[in-house]
């Protein structure tokens, strides 16, 4: 078994897991929930092994480096962080319906990595600028943050769905009835953003240190850096709105979604739509 | 309550509403520079956006918006906001940290949401000792005060974490101070000393040296280094698939005519000398070549830099040699065809890769020959006296975020009182964050005294 086959199985596991969670949400059949969790765990395990294998394979090719260095590998890692973070939240908050809003991110990210046109899946050697331990620290910290923000975005959508159903006076046993209480979702969203903000800050800082080691400039306002700081400003305002002006509920839910859109743009949009140093996407 | 300062300007800067507005404005305006290409020549903007729009952009400094006057104003307002907002609140935090919690009215303890009463079969003095010991065994160092008919114990943890927020806020200011200290513009325009902080570059051909670099900042030009840097050697290594693996320069630092350091630098491994950092950033191949030959018996040798198809005559060594052909990829030479003769018999002709050595067996003896293309190494050169401020700020920010988000100020009171021969201990407590977590700790603390 090589890493690509295992990544294939991971993708399948995440697809099935998402399907089960969505079924759980739609049909409110609590019995199947366990299957969703089992599939998600199986997926994470397979993916962990696969990433380890890919790492080893790179050494077998004589160009050993951690599997965190191009678009494909970063998508895989993003998917892993999201799934892992979701599972952690599921165990902490003992609620499975959230999976319907988060696991699809993990699946789509894997599927996109595996099937997108022009995605280079090969293990390629590192160009000189990427040969730095700061690169690893930078990617790991950023993507833990991104995983958390994906979760927060999913929670935001969930909040708004439930809220609008309640506002329309839909009965308790309607589609959104199985979602956690608004207050619980709100609390989870906030905590997730706090967690993500810490890692995003660390990600921006490690990136700056790396740039300074490689080029002698810790900040050059290239589009990727700029978008990461825009994202950081958005979440900083979200947190301040919350703990100094008492914002909660729908407004925080919207901000969680806007924040994730900004994360998404930092990650993808910049690579495909704008130009700059971080030309990850082109390879 | 602290006295209210009524200065309206101060009031504005003390408001979080302004902070939200500024954070949002900074985020929104930052987008502009990611869409409109920055630092292009004026003609670029005219061609792309038309003369009128381009003129407007120039007045608004859009082509260099992150250094524009209005962006600087935004950042200044942001900093003032941060300073005033924090100054306004620090006294309150200080009060919360240093307040006398033993002065808390016992009646208030009874109204706290976290409380638990435990009856002990002991005298009041014993109960106080036991409770103090119990708290200490759980890491709560209690102080006490006698009230009439009761003793109040108090312990707290993490009071200082109230300052976490201010660690974060000051870290942002420290980073901005570092950015100002390290700014080439500030050095040039305000300090009038462009040598204080600069960014620039220099190309040094192999075997050549320089004691100046060229600033990136318009109107600065050459900057003297105060010492000399020589490029002894430059090399590119490739992976089997042809991707570059490593750019390497061997540099010598020369002071007062003496080589004081010899260092190999690569991308991500710069040379730092006297606060000036040299980064491997590019290279320039030339159409000249370095040829070296050595007679292995006598040890005599010759090195020369020549263009292709030029014959080198080595009189003392009694040999002539040169490059007669080569294979290139772009501007980079992959293989040389060498011609060598000692005028005894047929000349030797053979292919040689750059950086490799060839042993040539000739009637007159045994020679070692090597050839390589001449390169100039491209160095980015920077002096940034503010970078340690920035790094310190970054470290403090992470530390402060950890404290602000994940640590809390927790308080526990224990009121030991005696009524009609019965001794009760009333525990009460609160935490400013993570209340659920503290509830568990508190319950456990109270329960285990029984
Ligand atoms: C992007 C920059 C900023 C960051 C990263 C930041 C970060 C933080 C953090 C981590 C907290 C603590 C939250 C908590 O206790 O859970 C906080 C609180 C606070 N911040 Fe900021 N902040 C920023 C900008 C500002 C600005 C410009 C102001 C100016 C008014 C401000 C005002 C406050 C206030 C009033 C609090 C609440 C303090 C309290 O608990 O009494 N912040 N900030």
Describe it for me?
The complex is a heterodimer of chains A (283) and B (450). Chain A is mainly alpha-helical. Chain A folds into 2 domains: 1-118; 130-283, no CATH class. Chain A has 8 helices and no strands. In chain A, helix 6 (182-215) runs antiparallel to helix 7 (223-245). The longest helix of chain A has 35 residues, at 133-167. In chain B, strands 4, 5, 6, 7, 8, 9, 10, 11, 16 and 17 form a 10-stranded antiparallel β-sheet that branches. In chain B, helix 2 (16-35) runs antiparallel to helix 5 (69-98), helix 3 (42-49) crosses helix 4 and helix 8 runs antiparallel to helix 10. Chain B folds into 4 domains: 8-95; 99-158 and 408-447, 2-Layer Sandwich (TATA-Binding Protein); 167-284 and 377-399, no CATH class; 286-376, no CATH class. With 450 residues, chain B is of the alpha+beta class. Chain B has 11 helices and 19 strands. Classes of the chains: A mainly alpha (283), B alpha+beta (450). The A-B interface holds A 63, 124-125, 127-129, 131-132, 194-195, 197-198, 201-202, 205, 208-209, 212-219, 221, 223, 226-227, 229-230, 233-234, 236-237, 240-241, 244-245, 270, 274-275 and B 16-17, 19-20, 23-24, 26-27, 30-31, 33-35, 37-38, 66, 179, 199, 239, 241, 243-247, 266-268, 270, 277, 279-281, 380-382, 384, 387, 390-391, 394, 397-398, 401-402, 405. The structure holds protoporphyrin IX containing FE (HEM). Protoporphyrin IX containing FE sits between chains B (16, 19, 23, 78, 81-82, 85, 89, 165, 168-169, 172, 401, 404-405) and A (236, 240, 243-244).
